[in-house]
What we know:
With 275 residues, the protein is of the alpha+beta class. It has helices at residues 7-10, 13-22, 41-50, 100-114, 170-173, 189-210, 216-221, and strands at residues 31-35, 57-61, 82-90, 120-123, 127-130, 133-143, 153-161, 229-233, 240-247, 253-257, 260-264, 270-273.
Amino acid sequence: MTVSDNLADTLSVAAIAAALEACGGLAHRFDVDVLAECDSSNSRLMARAEAGAPGGTVIVAKRQTAGRGRRGRGWLSAPGESLTFSLLWRFPPGTALEGLSLAVGVALVRAFEELGIADIRLKWPNDMLLRGRKLAGILVELAPSPRTAQGPAAIIGVGINLRLPAALPDDIRAGAAALAETGVALPEANHLLAHLLAALQQQLTDFSAVGFAPLRAGWQQRHAHADRPVRLLDDVNPPREGICRGVDAQGALLLETADGLQRIISGEVSLRLQA
Ligand code: ATP
């Protein structure tokens, strides 16, 4: 596809399965559903996870009416202008999930690099930036495991701007970016999604075995705010300021402050570049 194609018309279960098969015979690893409309693909998949859906279940939403970001925020998308999907992944017992959303970011940025887009960077903990503006958001939520003996499970939600949704309010639009800006001819929509799922499948398998630590260097290389002055905002504490030194082996942010190096674990924090 080019990003001008209408995703709402082209995405289909059969075409995604065929594209996954073409990506190294992966169709059997995923159970994909394409919804014409839903509130939030993460919410829908959470309900299926609670009912015992297997790992590899994917919901693709052509239209999301209440897409979600972190901290109660919304993710805005529009049919034909956005690619929004959620993947349920069940991990082996004992898997520690620290750094999971960062691992997902590295996988997706690498997948786009393979397609010829070289300048996507990562903003801690969960955003993909194109030339400093938000191209995609990742929302990882823990899902219940049907039996206590099973390992942890996560729902990995991804929203990517192909073009900027027309309904994006001006304040969000100013900080947003879209794949169309790159001018790179991308695969058609079903193949693009299959390519991203294949990258996630590989990364999540690796993450299950070895965690985030071996991925840290890949994250640091693509870090949007390396050694830049930043401010951390949360709902409770005064803003914290410092120099952003990237992440540690668990995916915690390292902030160099006047009081020394602080280690910030994900949670309810938003990061801003200082003016
Ligand atoms: P930030 O720190 O950038 O505010 P966050 O990590 O706290 O983000 P996210 O869950 O990553 O929050 O993203 C939600 C935010 O992203 C929204 O509050 C809005 O500002 C912005 N946003 C919503 N839809 C889009 C979109 N399609 N493209 C770019 N930005 C968007």
